[in-house]
Amino acid sequence: MIPSITFFRPVVLCLFVLVFTTCSDSNQETDNRTVFNYNEMAGISSLDPASANNTEDIWGVNQVYSGLVQLNDSLTVQPCIAKEWFVSDDGLTYTFKLRNNVYFHDNQCFENGKGRKVTARDFVISFNRLYDARVSSAVSLLANIDRTEKTGYKGFSALNDSTFVVYLKEPFSAFLSVLTMKYFSVIPFEAADFYGQDFRRNPVGTGPFKFKLWEEGTKLVLLKNENYFEFDGKNRLPYLDAVTISFVKDRETAFMELLNGKYDMLSGADAFNINEVLDKNGNLQPIYAEKFNMQKQTFLKTDYLGILVDENIDIVKKSPLRIKALRKAINYGFDRVKMVKFFRNNIGYPATAGFIPNGLPSFNEKVVKGYTYNPEKVRQLLIEAGFPEGKGLPEITLHTTDNYLEQTEFVQSQLADNNIKVNISVDKPVVLRQAVASCEYNLFKKSWVGDYADEENFMSLFYSKNFAPVGSNYTHYKNPDFDILFEKVIREQNREVKNALYQKMDQMLIDDAPIVPLYYDQVIRLVHKNIKDFSTNPMNLLNLKYVKKEAKK
Predict the structure, then answer these.
(1) Is the dihedral of CA 254, 259, 265, 267 positive or negative?
(2) Which fold has domain 46-197?
(3) Which of 9, 159, 204, 481 has its CA 20 to 30 A from that of 182?
(4) What pLDDT digit, counting tens, does each position of 497-518 carry?
């Protein structure tokens, strides 16, 4: 990590020499190059876009690579390497016309170390590579690619250097949104061949920043791509000269480094002590408001309790949660508003609508009627379920992790006040993930983050053909009417029609109650005041190509 340029300890000078390969002028006392510094507590495991399946890896990959299309901060699909595209009338063929001025970063994998121009063939190779489960986490996203006799067994083709074509088996209205995922970045085959298994730590892309060095567990350094193809109108992007990422795991240490000016930004409610930094209304305490700007932004993430409802599974046959009235009673049995205010300092929104989060076009809490705290409804539903005043109702076990213990204890307390007894089991995250995927728990704390900006990504969790462990339907929810609407909406191109269909599906989930929505999350960042044009977006994607860093006053 490169500390702030205003500190001139010997170790800093050595690091500048290492990072920028500058001339060794020992008398130089100023450097006007701008470096954006941030910390990633969870670390980075790979900079291969094919395996970019978590936020921290995606953030790094986004700086180095580009794809056909990209999202703006309003979640609208925009051109990137593809300057335009055309969709056939039947929705099965997507034709992309590529820019002719996009070059891979200079790297020793190329002849004479000079990055070459990107062609449509590079996309064919990059996309086909995603079928290799040894390197790719995107295999399931390719299920609708048509590699049958109809297309010559080729799901992707390069008609010429600037024309790339994708063939689908079925129309899929969210397909362009899917292509904004970092999996679908273009890579040079020369780099994958040259570095082999070590390509994950030797990335070569076309993005606004290029790879310089990576000391795993310590720091990652990226330098400005002087040949980046995007402009702000007249000036070539990016504005920053470098990005450095540290991997300090202790949040108190990281927060102190933010206070000391070593970091320009910390992101996420887990990255600092919200009870110290924020008041109960979610605003910065005055002492910190003097130092930082706080960014809060709708986040495509829903936190919820999942309920296994498949009565073909033995643990469900023996569970009172198989009874819909009890599941609904749990939904009415605690106060989401208080949970968000007192246990999250008003970071997020109470989930009083459906599963689809605030931030997507179909979200409308006036149309999708969710649950609010209502003890009288709980009382009535317990009678309907056969447990008047909770009599005869066995204790229910809720599985969670340490991070969510306070929240689940609040739910436990309020449900107890309403005659529903809950025992909390705290698991390690990896244990919980595996058990939930294997259908071993009746009730569990879970969250879902949108992989792409379409409601289909959230509704797919309840499509019956996506049962876990193969798919992500962890509740094993099955409703034929829901499935019919799901299969209809993924073919629908009209946004207003899609909104209505998604709202109808979301209401079905609320009425059947295989889930207990808790809250819709928010992106939160603490940013030093000298950082300008640093935007946020509901995907929580880190975009640094427009960022400017001014000298501190």
Answers:
(1) positive
(2) Dipeptide-binding Protein; domain 1 (3.90.76)
(3) 159
(4) 999 999 999 999 999 999 999 9
